[in-house]
Every structure is written in C-alpha cells, then in structure tokens.
Amino acid sequence: MTIAAQLNLSELNLDGTHAIAKKGGESVAYQGRKKAKTTNILPITDGEGFIIASTGLIAGNHNDAFNLKAHLQTAFKSMKQLGLLIEGAFFNADKAFDTKAAR
C-alpha cells in the first residue's frame, strides 16, 4: 500500500506556527508578541494530522493571512503534482485565515 493511499484526504487542515530563530536564517523578522526574531510556516495536514503540504517560510513579523492566496495556490498546486486527490475535501482553518482573498 502506498503512503498516498493511507492518507485521510477527506479533510484538510491549515494552521500557522511561529518558531523562534535564535541563529537567524531564511525569512526571519522580529515578532513583538514573541519578543524575538521568528519565522512562520503554514502546514496543511490530512485528517490524521500528517503534513501533506506547506507554504514556504514567512517572516515572523507577518500574520498568518499575509499573502495567503498565493501561498494556498502554491500548496494546492504541490498537492496536485503529487497526485493527491483532494477534490471535495473539507478545508478547515481558524478565523485568522478567514479573508476575502482566501475564499
């Protein structure tokens, strides 16, 4: 059985996470709420919590919805290139992502 066959693609979940970048790195910026330089990434998981796609790194001074439309288009294109069948899946995200651009 392939890995793709074991995924629960009836449900896709999006959330953002900030990581403190103590040694610098790609897309790092000061995040006042964390009082540190951070980077942000938005993983998309299947119904079981396995990461199936993600955005690139986003500078930590931006909120989760920053440039969301472009990030989602890239992530969904990546899933389709992998042959993941996501048509008809429920897409869950918290209210931070509820923007006109994302609808």
Summarize the helices and strands and which ones pair or pack.
Layout: H1 3-6, E1 11-14, E2 17-20, E3 29-31, E4 36-41, E5 43-45, E6 51-54, E7 58-59, H2 68-81, E8 90-93
Offer a concise description of the structure.
With 103 residues, the chain is an alpha+beta fold. The protein has two helices and eight strands, in the order H-E-E-E-E-E-E-E-H-E.
Descriptive report:
The protein has helices at residues 3-6, 68-81; strands at residues 11-14, 17-20, 29-31, 36-41, 43-45, 51-54, 58-59, 90-93. The longest helix is centred in the C-terminal third of the chain and has 14 residues, at 68-81. It is of the alpha+beta class and 103 residues long. A hairpin with a 5-residue loop joins strand 5 and strand 6 (51-54). The chain has a single domain, classed as Double Stranded RNA Binding Domain (2-Layer Sandwich). Helix content is 17%, strand content 29%. A 4-stranded mixed β-sheet has the order 6-5-1-8. The protein contains 2 helices and 8 strands; from the N terminus they run αβββββββαβ.
